[in-house]
Every structure is written in structure tokens, then in C-alpha cells.
């Protein structure tokens, strides 16, 4: 699967496979939450990683799997983006596609709201 911007159809991720082995999830601060090349849904890991900032059943993936995306919007955090202020990654056409979480007190990942991206 590859995620594309829902508004302009530009690819925004590399090819991804569904991760069914949740033992691969890392909850440690400053570590990747999910290995590169894989995705899970928020619903699948809500019991492992509860979060008020992940709304609905979003796609969760590694920062390394983004392509054609650039940071914008509110990007608070001391060592990275804390992800508490909504979408902070945008496609080349300027449409919001995801929220980066990469601060020193968080696991590192991207979460994409389903109304911002569509799988292909």
C-alpha cells in the first residue's frame, strides 16, 4: 500500500505493508514506534499507545517512510515536533497530510488522518 494526498493524489509515503506483529512496536522515547516499511492503524495500537492527539482510526507509520512531504504548521517541541498542535506535515501542493511526533519525550512516528490521505 502507498498513501497519497486525498486532495491532489500525490504519493506521500513509500510502499508500506501492514504490521500484524505488534511485538515490533517500540514505546520507548526517542525510538521509532514502528519499523520503517510498515504501518498499523491507531485502533490496533490504542491499548499500547493511548493518545489524545490521535483522533479516529489513523494510519501510523515511521518518519522514514514519508516522501514528497514538508514540515509546516505549528511545530512545537524542544528536540523535534511534539505533535500536540495538529497536522504539521504537508504535501508539495500545501495540503495537510499528517502529524509528526518526534520530540525527546515521545516515541517517533507519523499519524495520518484518513480524510487527509487515501491508500492506493
Question: Could you please describe the fold and organization of this structure?
Answer:
The structure is a single chain. The chain has 1 helix and 9 strands. It is mainly beta. It has a single domain, classed as Metal Binding Protein, Guanine Nucleotide Exchange Factor, Chain A (Beta Complex). The strands form 2 sheets. A 7-stranded mixed beta sheet has the order 2-3-4-8-7-6-5. A hairpin with a 7-residue loop joins β7 (96-101) and β8 (109-112). The chain starts with a strand and ends with a strand.
Secondary structure layout plus pairing:
Elements: E1 3-5, E2 17-18, E3 38-41, H1 42-45, E4 59-61, E5 70-71, E6 89-90, E7 96-101, E8 109-112, E9 117-119
Strand content: 15-25%
Q: What is the CATH topology assignment?
A: Metal Binding Protein, Guanine Nucleotide Exchange Factor, Chain A
Distance between the termini: 6 Å
Total individual domains: 1
Mean pLDDT equals: 93
- How many beta strands in the DSSP annotation? 9
Give a quick account of the main beta sheet: strands, pairing sense, barrel closure. Answer: 7 strands, mixed
Structural class: mainly beta
Count of helical segments?
A: 1
